[in-house]
C-alpha cells in the first residue's frame, strides 16, 4: 500500500494475508481459551502472550504495506479516502454492537477518531486499542511523506526504540488526559492542512501532526510509554523491511531494526511478553523468507477476513460460550467481508478514481 517493484502492490500479497490470518487466530485463541479452559489460559499465558504476539504480527504487516499504499498513490487525500473506507464501515458495525452489549463511556469524538486509547478514553471493545496505534501510524506516515522524510523508516524505528529504552522509567502515562480534546483538535487541524493546503501550509500541518502524535504516544497512552513507542517502532520496522526488499534501502541499513525486538524483550516485565516479541518477529521474518512459495488457502482466506474476525469476536464471546463463539466469528466474518468490507472498499476506490 510504494512504487511498483518485484511484487505488485495492487495485487493481494498471499503471504502477508497468511500472516494476518495467523495473527487473527492467535488473538482469538487468547480471548477464547480463557472461557474454554481457564487453567490452560493461566498456564500458557504465564510463558506466552498469544494475543500480544498476534497484534505485533498485525503491526509488522501494517508497517510493511500501509506506507507503500500512500506512496503508490502519490498523494495523501487518496490514501485517506482508502483508509476511511477500509476501516470505518466495519468499525461502525462493531460500535453498534458495543452500544447494545457493553457500557460505552468517554468522548464520542475520541471514539470516532479511533485515537481513543491515546486520548484517555476507554475503548468500547477491548481490541479497538490497536486501531489507535494504527491511526497514529497513518498520521505519522502522512506527515513524513509530506515532509519528504518517508524513506527514513529504519532510522525512525531505531530512534523510537532508543527513546523507549532511555525513557522507560521516566515517561508518564496519561499525563495529558485533561487536554485530550485540544490534542484532537490540533491533530484534526494538522491533517486538514496536509490534505487541503499546499506548499508551506501542508508542511506546517505535517510538522504539527508529527509533534502532536509523538507527544500523545510518549505521554498520554493507556499503555506504558515504552510499550507505545515500541509498537510504533515495530510498524516502522515493517516499512524498513519492505524498503529493503524493494531495493530502496540496503539490507544492511534495514537490519538495524532488529534493535526493536531486542528493546521490546529488554523492556518487557514478564516472560510471556518477551516470548511474544520474539515469536512475532520470527513469524514475520519466516513469512518474508517464504514469500515466493504458495500458502495454504485457509490462511490466505483468514487474512482476507482478519479485520472482521478481530473486531467481531469479542462481541460474540460476550453473548455465547466460546465453543460456539469461535465458529460463529468466522461465519459472521465471511458475511461482513462480503457485504460490508468489500463493497465499502470498492466504493472508496471509485471515489479515488473519480477524484483523480
UniProtKB/TrEMBL annotation:
Protein keywords: Membrane, Transmembrane, Transmembrane helix
GO biological process: polysaccharide biosynthetic process
Record GO cellular component, one term: membrane
Domain of life: Bacteria
Record-linked InterPro entries: Acyl_transf_3_dom (IPR002656), Acyltransferase_3 (IPR050879)
Name of a matching Pfam family: Acyl_transf_3
Annotated PANTHER family: ACETYLTRANSFERASE, BLR2367 PROTEIN
Protein name: Peptidoglycan/LPS O-acetylase OafA/YrhL
Amino acid at each position: 500500500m510504494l512504487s511498483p517493484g518485484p511484487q505488485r502492490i495492487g495485487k493481494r500479497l498471499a503471504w502477508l494475508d497468511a500472516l494476518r490470518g495467523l495473527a487473527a487466530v492467535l488473538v482469538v485463541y487468547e480471548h477464547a481459551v480463557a472461557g474454554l479452559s481457564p487453567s490452560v489460559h493461566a498456564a500458557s499465558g504465564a510463558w506466552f502472550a498469544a494475543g500480544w504476539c498476534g497484534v505485533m504480527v498485525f503491526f509488522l504487516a501494517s508497517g510493511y504495506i500501509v506506507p507503500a499504499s500512500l506512496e503508490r498513490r502519490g498523494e495523501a487525500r487518496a490514501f485517506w479516502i482508502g483508509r476511511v473506507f477500509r476501516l470505518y464501515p466495519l468499525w461502525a458495525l462493531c460500535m453498534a454492537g458495543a452500544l447494545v452489549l457493553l457500557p460505552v463511556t468517554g468522548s464520542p469524538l475520541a471514539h470516532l477518531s479511533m485515537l481513543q486509547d491515546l486520548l484517555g478514553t476507554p475503548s468500547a471493545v477491548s481490541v479497538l486499542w490497536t486501531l489507535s496505534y494504527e491511526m497514529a501510524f497513518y498520521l505519522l506516515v502522512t506527515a513524513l511523506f509530506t515532509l519528504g522524510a518517508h524513506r527514513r523508516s529504519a532510522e525512525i524505528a531505531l530512534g523510537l526504540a532508543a527513546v523507549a529504552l532511555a525513557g522507560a522509567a521516566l515517561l508518564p502515562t496519561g499525563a495529558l488526559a485533561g487536554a485530550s480534546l485540544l490534542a484532537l483538535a490540533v491533530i484534526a487541524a494538522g491533517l486538514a492542512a496536509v490534505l487541503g493546503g499546499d506548499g508551506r501550509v501542508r508542511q506546517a500541518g505535517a510538522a504539527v501532526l508529527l509533534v502532536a502524535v509523538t507527544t500523545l504516544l510518549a505521554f498520554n497512552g493507556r499503555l506504558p510509554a515504552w510499550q507505545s513507542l515500541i509498537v510504533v517502532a515495530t510498524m516502522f520496522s515493517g516499512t524498513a523491511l519492505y524498503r529493503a526488499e524493494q531495493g530502496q534501502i540496503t539490507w544492511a541499513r534495514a537490519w538495524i531494526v532488529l534493535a526493536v525486538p531486542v528493546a521490546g524483550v529488554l523492556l518487557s516485565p514478564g516472560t510471556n511478553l518477551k516470548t511474544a516479541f520474539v515469536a512475532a518477529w520470527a513469524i514475520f521474518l519466516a513469512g518474508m523468507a517464504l514469500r515466493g512459495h504458495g500458502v495454504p488457502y485457509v490462511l490466505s482466506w483468514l487474512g482476507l477476513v482478519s479485520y472482521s474476525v478481530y473486531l467481531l469476536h469479542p462481541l460474540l464471546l460476550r453473548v455465547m460460550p466460546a465453543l460456539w463463539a469461535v465458529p460463529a466469528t468466522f461465519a459472521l466474518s465471511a458475511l461482513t467481508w462480503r457485504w460490508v468490507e468489500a463493497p465499502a472498499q470498492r466504493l472508496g476506490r471509485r471515489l479515488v478514481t473519480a477524484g483523480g
